Amino acid sequence: MTLSCEAGGSPVSYSWFKDNEIVKAGGRVSLSSDNQTLTLDPGSRNDSGSSTCLATNAASSQNDTVRLDVLCN
């Protein structure tokens, strides 16, 4: 399962959160070098919940949240 985040402006830094806790790479979780893409492989029921991308640049920050419902492994 892959989630991507895109924002205008330059430079932009990206952070990912699951249920309001920062997501870090490791195990099934990988992040692209710029943190713009989050990959969960394999996806599992434990991935269900709110996933948020926070995009920040010198002028402002913006976030977008999606609700994931993983029904099977």
From TrEMBL:
GO molecular function, one term: peptidase activity
GO biological process, one term: proteolysis
InterPro entries: Ig-like_dom, Ig-like_dom_sf, Ig-like_fold, Ig_I-set, IgSF_CEA-related
ATP-binding as UniProt keyword: no
Matching SUPFAM superfamilies: Immunoglobulin (SSF48726)
Swiss-Prot/TrEMBL keywords: Disulfide bond, Glycoprotein, Hydrolase, Immunoglobulin domain, Protease, Signal
Annotated Pfam families: I-set
Stretches the record annotates as Disordered: 32-52
Residues covered by the Ig-like domain: 1-69
Annotated PANTHER family: CARCINOEMBRYONIC ANTIGEN-RELATED CELL ADHESION MOLECULE 8, IMMUNOGLOBULIN SUBTYPE DOMAIN-CONTAINING PROTEIN
Protein name per UniProt: ATP-dependent protease
Organism: Platysternon megacephalum (big-headed turtle)
Lineage: Eukaryota, Metazoa, Chordata, Craniata, Vertebrata
